[in-house]
Design a protein that fits this description.
- The protein contains 18 helices and 11 strands.
- The strands form 3 sheets. It has a 7-stranded mixed sheet with strand order 3-4-5-2-1-8-9.
- With 369 residues, the chain is of the alpha+beta class.
- Helix content is 52%, strand content 10%.
- It folds into 3 domains: 1-115, Beta Polymerase, domain 2 (2-Layer Sandwich); 119-201, Orthogonal Bundle (Hydrophobic Seed Protein), CATH 1.10.110; 207-340, no CATH class.
- The chain has helices spanning 8-15, 31-36, 84-89, 112-118, 133-144, 154-166, 174-185, 190-199, 203-206, 215-226, 232-244, 250-260, 264-281, 288-297, 305-317, 325-337, 341-345, 351-368, and strands spanning 2-6, 23-27, 40-41, 48-50, 57-60, 62-66, 74-78, 99-100, 106-107, 120-121, 151-152.
- The protein is elongated, with a radius of gyration of 26 Å.
- The N and C termini lie far apart (72 Å).
């Protein structure tokens, strides 16, 4: 039995990047041997085990055969006779098909190290086209390694286009599509991810609503946003704004988020930005009633975090907006937060009259802004 470090951990180590996750392949072992050594089985489709000391995954070496549609349409074969090279052959890209043996020897049967040095994302075999999820994965790797100058090999892009034309993408679940999309949003280049999907003809199949984006404008604006240390939600909101643009497109935006099964906080960030970015960017030029309408509609007195999420994408869209907009708004919200119903209640004012009095106080503060 031999345990080898494989995949992304080897790739990132060779690139000099921080290695966050370790994946291990066990060659020459049976499930029973793994259990006897204390590993906890978790795999359903093929034997994967958890190391009780580290919590890391250890998978038995395996081969696979296409047996159905989609990324789950595979039959896996595990056996002590499966070699490390056979296990690596089933992986997606050459740069992900390297291993380090227990003695420190690098195993690179498909020239992954050569492609690392050349900055090329290249498939290993024609079997690449059997898994539609690989279109999204390659696009995500292209975005992640974009600063390092990586590009997709022409023959690999051709296979990605072949997958898009085959109808296999339709078998991807919304959860899997969102998972890959969200992971791209964690980096600075989600637009590159979308551009790669566009070039592979997958965008029209999976995220057709985003085809309206002007890529040159998007890259310029996302660069400004990245300078503000944004969250994934803020990047998603900005991309949605570039696609849907006008407040009257809210129904389409909501339908897009629902179909994609985006978490509520992502949908909220996107709908807030599409509806309010123009008003927020020109807040000092708006009427008191419009200023108060924004604050009231977004419930900023109770949920100030919505302003935090809205502000950075707005500033990226409107570089001409006042630099101290956030400080002025924070000060205004703080003053509004000091408005208390108790002041009027002591005077015997109740019901609608009390609500009107507080409304007028908020409007007065908005006018002073």
């Amino acid at each position: 039995m031999e345990i080898c470090l494989v995949g992304g951990a080897v790739r990132d180590q060779l690139l000099g990047l921080d290695v966050k996750d370790h994946d291990w392949v066990v060659v020459g072992a049976t499930p029973e041997q793994m259990r006897q050594q204390g590993y906890r089985p978790v795999g359903k489709d093929f034997p994967v085990f958890i190391n009780p000391d580290t919590g890391e995954e250890y998978a038995l070496a395996r081969t696979e055969r296409k047996s159905g549609h989609g990324y789950q349409g595979f039959t896996f074969h595990t056996d002590p006779s499966v070699t490390l090279e056979e296990d690596l052959y089933r992986r997606d890209l050459t740069i992900n098909a390297m291993a380090i043996r227990s003695d420190g020897t690098l195993v690179d049967p498909y020239q992954g190290q050569k492609d690392l040095k050349a900055g090329v994302l290249r498939h290993i075999s024609a079997a690449f086209a059997e898994d539609p999820l690989r279109v999204l994965r390659v696009a995500r790797f292209a975005a992640r390694f974009y600063p390092l100058g990586f590009s997709i090999a022409p023959e690999t892009l051709s296979l990605m286009q072949q997958i898009s034309a085959s109808g296999e993408l339709e078998h991807l679940s919304a959860e899997r599509v969102w998972s890959e999309f969200e992971r791209s949003l964690q980096g600075e280049f989600p637009v590159v991810f979308l551009q790669c999907l566009d070039k592979s003809h997958a965008l029209e199949k999976l995220l057709a609503e985003l085809q309206a984006i002007d890529w040159d404008d998007a890259n310029t604006i996302i660069k400004r946003l990245n300078a503000l240390s944004p969250s994934s939600e803020q990047r998603f909101a900005l991309i949605c704004q570039l696609a849907f643009q006008q407040p009257n497109h809210q129904p389409e935006l909501e339908a897009f988020c629902k179909r994609l099964k985006a978490p509520k906080r992502f949908q909220q960030a996107a709908t807030d930005l599409v509806q309010w970015h123009n008003v927020l960017a020109s807040f000092d030029m708006q009427s008191p009633s419009t200023r108060w309408k924004l604050i009231k509609s977004l419930k900023l007195l109770r949920q100030p975090e919505r302003l935090d999420c809205l502000l950075s994408p707005t500033l990226a869209l409107h570089p001409e907006a006042p630099e101290d907009l956030d400080k002025k708004l924070s000060a205004l919200l703080q003053r509004m937060g000091q408005v208390s119903a108790a002041h009027w209640a002591k005077q015997g004012i109740q019901g609608k009259a009390l609500g009107d009095a507080m409304e007028q106080a908020y409007l007065s503060l908005a006018e002073e802004f």
